[in-house]
Design brief:
Blueprint lengths: L1 H15 L8 H13 L6 E9 L4 E8 L2 E8 L8 E5 L5 E5 L1 H14 L1
Antiparallel strand pairs: 1-2, 2-3, 4-5
Amino acid sequence: MKTITLTLAAIMALAATPAQAFLSSQDETTLLATLNQENITPGVHYNDIRCSVRNKKCLVKMEIKTQKAGCLIEHMNDVSDLYTESTTRDNQVRMILSPYAEQALAACVAGLL
């Protein structure tokens, strides 16, 4: 319950204050596709990711089974704290979560399960 309350407070804080994003909508789409493709947690589907330069946080919205939830990745200075990019042999861009972001997201999801 404590985690859900903190998560909801963080969601409200990010939604209430306009801030400059450091992810383009195309980057968000690509990163979400990667998260859902490489997702090893059954019943979790990632729906949205919003990042704020000013707040240095990223909010990842998801559905866990049929419940909507969100996880906050904090202390993000720039995109390198969130993901790295690589190009596949067929010249497609692939985004991989940074170890820090992956650990923060996994811990949050585990707490919600």
